[in-house]
């Protein structure tokens, strides 16, 4: 028999012996990430942006650590992030707050983001620190890269959109509008295409109205990833408007920036057909010496059963095409005393057959049934296109195409695990900040997963 127990009312102890370190599990995500979150350079990086006098500010390293928690753990609200850090022991430990450390107010993030963080480009510096650590941990092969872009919804109400050809209303104002006006000539945003968007969002004009997915059209930005295909480490990230031309331009900026910042120059680049236009292939092959493992963007195939361009053989020595009937197509059928450029404004040269040859040809109905003579368009960058076609027949191409799916897996992880399927910040700079922080979180989680704790500690 036992007598009824009585709950002992809690009494405040005079002293506690409590070590936060002992209450964070060894395999907790924040403990694993902490090994690679090197933020020692943050203060020196921001020093020129602080005054030598006045009231001490909140430690910028604390703010960055809290943002890393938010993006690593999918906490999208900064108000909620402050609450979670206040209550969660592991988060307090990661932020070096102890039990009695004060958590900053959520408004502090906005003040620093729009000020010192952007002026100093701090978030890119933090991201590049994770890339250098990945290189030091031998997670970057540096031979094969992959590139792709993904649409991220903008923080815009599509019901309040205005027709694009009418432009912004006169009363449109705000930080996002100012950033839009500043990027009208930027190749990543306003200068990427002369096409007027169907709709414009007054609250975030740089967001592009797109119907690129099967779902209903929406306003979006594009996040562009350049990754190393060995372990899917994100080497660079860039925010652009949601059009293909801007994404191709971002790919060039990222390739050059990775070489400049880290001294890494890929031998191969895998991408989808959106990056397979002739000028981009020529840039990769002729200007950067990179093998394009990219499907060629080509519209020369025909669906009516007539001969396609691939049925014609190009004679480099004599600059002509040879048709299936063994007749020639030339870029010029006449001799002129004045030299004229045969290249049109789109970078193509027209090769034409002789009407006399086509009139009596037995293959006329299979070649050019509706025109007097056959014509073929050839890009001035056809050499790079031919190289891409030849590479498509190799085993290395098949491997690169399979590994390229790692970029898509990173985007799926970004949206489903990190919860970045919709932006919280507005404007090009807001998208830039969010994409950099998300890529930083993904690289940190990658190292936490792939590098055993003992190996990492020994390396340190």
Automatic annotation (TrEMBL):
<dbReference type="InterPro" id="IPR025668">
    <property type="entry name" value="Tnp_DDE_dom"/>
</dbReference>
<dbReference type="Pfam" id="PF05598">
    <property type="entry name" value="DUF772"/>
</dbReference>
<dbReference type="InterPro" id="IPR008490">
    <property type="entry name" value="Transposase_InsH_N"/>
</dbReference>
<protein>
    <submittedName>
        <fullName>Transposase</fullName>
    </submittedName>
</protein>
<feature type="domain" description="Transposase InsH N-terminal">
    <location>
        <begin position="19"/>
        <end position="114"/>
    </location>
</feature>
<dbReference type="Pfam" id="PF13751">
    <property type="entry name" value="DDE_Tnp_1_6"/>
</dbReference>
<feature type="domain" description="Transposase DDE">
    <location>
        <begin position="322"/>
        <end position="448"/>
    </location>
</feature>
């Amino acid at each position: 028999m036992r007598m009824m127990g009585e709950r002992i009312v809690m009494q405040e102890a005079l002293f506690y012996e409590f070590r936060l370190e002992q209450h964070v599990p060894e395999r907790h995500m924040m403990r694993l990430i902490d090994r690679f979150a090197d933020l020692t350079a943050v203060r020196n990086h921001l020093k020129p942006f602080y005054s030598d006098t006045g009231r001490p500010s909140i430690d910028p390293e604390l703010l960055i650590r809290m943002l890393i928690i938010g993006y690593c753990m999918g906490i999208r609200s900064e108000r909620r992030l402050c609450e979670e850090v206040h209550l969660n022991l592991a988060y307090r430990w990661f932020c070096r707050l102890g039990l009695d450390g004060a958590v900053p107010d959520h408004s502090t993030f906005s003040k620093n983001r729009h000020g010192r963080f952007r002026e100093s480009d701090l978030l890119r510096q933090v991201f590049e620190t994770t890339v250098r650590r990945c290189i030091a941990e031998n997670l970057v092969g540096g031979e094969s890269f992959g590139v792709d872009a993904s649409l991220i919804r903008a923080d815009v109400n599509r019901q309040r959109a205005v027709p694009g050809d009418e432009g912004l209303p006169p009363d449109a104002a705000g930080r996002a509008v100012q950033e839009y006006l500043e990027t009208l000539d930027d190749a990543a945003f306003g200068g990427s295409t002369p096409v007027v968007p169907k709709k414009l969002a007054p609250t975030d004009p740089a967001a592009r109205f797109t119907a690129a997915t099967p779902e209903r059209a929406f306003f979006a930005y594009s996040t562009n990833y350049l990754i190393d295909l060995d372990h899917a480490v994100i080497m660079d990230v860039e925010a652009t408007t949601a059009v293909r031309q801007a994404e191709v331009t971002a790919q060039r900026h990222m390739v050059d920036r990775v070489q400049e910042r880290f001294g890494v120059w890929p031998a191969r680049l895998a991408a989808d057909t959106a990056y397979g236009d002739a000028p981009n292939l020529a840039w990769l092959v002729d200007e950067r010496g990179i093998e394009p493992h990219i499907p060629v963007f080509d519209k020369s195939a025909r669906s009516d059963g007539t001969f396609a361009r691939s049925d014609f053989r190009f004679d480099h020595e004599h600059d002509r095409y040879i048709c299936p009937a063994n007749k020639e197509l030339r870029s010029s059928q006449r001799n002129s005393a004045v030299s004229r450029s045969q290249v049109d404004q789109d970078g193509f040269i027209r090769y034409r057959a002789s009407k006399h040859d086509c009139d009596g040809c037995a293959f006329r109905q299979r070649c050019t049934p509706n025109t007097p003579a056959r014509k073929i368009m050839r890009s001035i960058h056809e050499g790079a296109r031919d190289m891409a076609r030849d590479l498509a027949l190799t085993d290395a191409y098949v491997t690169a195409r399979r590994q390229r799916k790692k970029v898509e897996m990173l985007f799926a992880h970004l949206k489903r695990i990190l919860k970045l399927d919709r932006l919280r910040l507005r404007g090009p700079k807001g998208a830039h900040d969010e994409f950099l922080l998300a890529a930083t979180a993904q690289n940190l989680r990658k190292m936490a997963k792939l590098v055993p704790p003992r190996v990492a500690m020994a390396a340190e």
